[in-house]
Amino acid sequence: MSETTEAAAAFTIDAWEETTYDDPAEGPKLTRVVVRKTYDGVLRGTGVAEVLTAQGGGSGFVASERIVGTLDGRAGSFVIQHGGLADPDGTTSTFGAIVPSSGTGELAGISGEATEGTPGTLTLRYRF
Known about the structure:
The chain is mainly beta. It has strands at 5-22, 29-41, 43-55, 59-71, 74-86, 92-98, 111-116, 121-127.
């Protein structure tokens, strides 16, 4: 296994298509969101994510996102699973991973972690 590389990529959200699928009188609203992104930097390309959210006093989300483009000059695609939780007081935690064996093209064999940090930034810790 090769050495782990860390890279941060800026992204912009190009589309946010949200649909509520459960909105009870009490408890959090549940939604499904399709998010389309453009990445720039060491990761250049596009991403599309299917996101499930719980929106109430606190909130949470889980997402599967396919990213297509180039990472450090290697062309292909890969999938990340990520998510996060936010307490009503604003305390947040996020998590994410590159799905094993999801890499295609020159990104085949990629594995590692993927987390959204500061707004508009995805940090990858990856290896081949």
